[in-house]
TrEMBL record:
<dbReference type="Pfam" id="PF01663">
    <property type="entry name" value="Phosphodiest"/>
</dbReference>
<dbReference type="InterPro" id="IPR017850">
    <property type="entry name" value="Alkaline_phosphatase_core_sf"/>
</dbReference>
<dbReference type="InterPro" id="IPR002591">
    <property type="entry name" value="Phosphodiest/P_Trfase"/>
</dbReference>
<protein>
    <submittedName>
        <fullName>Alkaline phosphatase family protein</fullName>
    </submittedName>
</protein>
């Protein structure tokens, strides 16, 4: 049974304590005078290393602190911080771009795992960038990495070699020197080398915990073991860095397990397809692109089927709630005419359109505390 606390949604804290506020806060801590309001304050230092652990929600870390003693120790350390929020939807492509640009999803435009390419009947997968879409046109704003570099910092991104030059990397992380590193030892060595520069920001990304959660679920022994490995990696990184370099560990979102009995397959409910020309987003946060004039009927039909298990909103209502922050005119048609945000452990799947989602145990994308609250750990 879902408790009231678990059912409640967490609204994004854009411009205060969201993932997009991390790099501006780092810039100020480096003494670069980077502007922008934020409730996130970091201690002064001449060099910062930011490690983003994909899928490490704040509630998950608190619940399994015994498996991550180093990271858990930072929760109550000298620079202990209350959790931040991801943006909406709470998904990797959106979050990595919010971090890298310091912009809201409604401004940077990567508004989900998949989103409609305006003027077409096609979806762009923001992780795999599977359409002929120029990332410089899709996300035209300067990144926070380029802003920090222009302000005089040495800026480095350490990531898997396969991500060099991809659409997501160009959209979210351009402006930094890219260093390819596939193994933990390579990543740590690259970060230590980059952090010798002053002032400097070095960003590292680790995807393994998220992959394990998707495959096995966050209640699995596999996920717990992977968390312990991440903890050891973070501690080893801290020990390898000079003492005057600050390490910040953050995440892009949390995760919930969605059992088979908590899933609604769109293909089993004909009324859910009426008026919908394209199904986008992901299982925990759907974008529904409607035929002309069908928006109200789609809201009514989906609300009737899902009831209190999801918030079914028109695009206009979701924008008014501030879910995506400020929304650029070019980004507006990428949002669903109707959006569906799941509560509890509900997932909205489609055997026909997204068959791979059936193999996933852990999911994310919605606004529950387990998905939205992310740690900010400073050492």
């Amino acid at each position: 049974m879902t408790t009231p606390a678990e059912a409640a949604f967490v609204e994004p804290r854009y411009g205060d304590r969201s993932l997009g506020d991390v790099l501006p806060a780092v810039g100020r801590a480096l003494g670069l005078g980077v502007p922008g309001p934020t409730g996130l304050e970091l201690p002064p230092a001449s060099a910062y290393v930011v490690l983003l652990v994909d899928g490490l929600g704040a509630q998950l870390l608190e619940r399994h602190a015994h498996a991550a003693p180093y990271l858990a120790s930072l929760l109550a350390g000298d620079h202990g911080q209350e959790p931040m929020t991801a943006g909406v939807p709470s998904t990797t492509a959106t979050s990595l771009t919010s971090l890298g640009t310091a912009l809201t999803p409604g401004t940077h435009g990567l508004v989900g795992f998949t989103a409609r390419v305006p003027g077409s009947g096609e979806l762009l997968n923001h992780l795999f960038w599977d359409r002929d879409v120029d990332p410089l046109e899709w996300q035209p704003h300067p990144t926070a990495f380029s802003t920090l570099r222009a302000a005089g910092a040495s800026v480095t991104v350490v990531n898997q070699r396969a991500f060099d030059g991809t659409g997501l990397t160009v959209a979210a992380h351009r402006g930094a020197t890219f260093v390819g590193a596939d193994k933990v030892g390579e990543r740590i060595a690259a970060a230590v080398h980059a952090a010798r520069e002053r002032p400097s920001l070095t960003y590292l990304y680790d995807a393994d915990l998220d992959w394990t959660g998707h495959r096995w679920g966050v209640a699995s022994s596999q996920w717990l073991m992977q968390l312990s490995m991440i903890d050891a990696e973070a501690e080893q990184l801290r020990e390898a860095l000079p003492s005057d370099v600050r390490l910040v560990v953050v995440a892009d979102h949390g995760m919930v397990d969605s059992p088979a009995g908590s899933r609604v397959d769109v293909d089993d409910h004909a009324e859910l397809s009426d008026g919908v020309s394209l199904l986008g987003g992901e299982a925990r946060f759907r974008h529904l692109y409607c035929r002309r004039g069908a928006q109200d009927d789609v809201v009514a039909a989906w609300s009737a089927v899902l009831g209190e298990r999801a918030d079914v909103l028109s695009r206009e209502d979701a924008v008014r709630r501030g879910w995506f922050g400020a929304v650029d005119a070019a980004v507006l048609p990428r949002l669903g005419d109707v959006v569906v945000a799941c509560r509890g452990d509900l997932a909205v799947v489609s055997t026909t359109h997204f068959p791979y989602e059936h193999s996933l145990v852990g999911l994310h994308g919605s606004l529950t505390p387990a998905e939205m609250l992310i740690p900010v750990l400073v050492d």
